[in-house]
Amino acid sequence: MRAPADIPTVETDEAAVLEHLLATRWSCRAYQDRPVPEETIDRLLTIAQRSASWCNTQPWQAIVTSGEDTKRFREAMTSGARNNQPKFDFDAPAEYPGVYRERRPVSRSTTPTPTTRPTTTAQSGHP
């Protein structure tokens, strides 16, 4: 583990790029009916490999299709989502006791978050 003095500070322009990316991100609700170039898919998958995973579980699964395979896959996924309840590998924690709670940041907002939500309201393992 590196000491804080050994960790370089973020350059202002790098922080601005990250801020812009996070501020302008959005969740797509509809898709265009045109194929994504293979080079774009390869680049996105390479970049995605660098993202963090919860508890280092590395839950990556990628299915890349084209043409009729995409149509069949889309139909199967839609049918599966409509007809089945989701199944999780393990439940999310309902609370963070002891040092784990102490390590969690304090929320600056008044909106309930996992750090501010009363643990007594958790009815299921999925907050």
TrEMBL record:
Source species, domain of life: Bacteria
Comp. bias regions, Low complexity: 107-121
InterPro entries: Nitroreductase, Nitroreductase-like, Nitroreductase/BluB
Pfam families in alphabetical order: Nitroreductase
SUPFAM superfamilies tied to this protein: FMN-dependent nitroreductase-like
GO molecular function terms noted in the UniProt entry: oxidoreductase activity
Nitroreductase domain ranges (all copies): 23-88
Keywords assigned by UniProt, alphabetized: Flavoprotein, FMN, Oxidoreductase
Residue ranges of the region described as Disordered: 78-127
Claim: Transcription is one of the keywords in the record: no
Record PANTHER family: IODOTYROSINE DEIODINASE 1, NADPH NITROREDUCTASE
Record-given protein name: Nitroreductase domain-containing protein
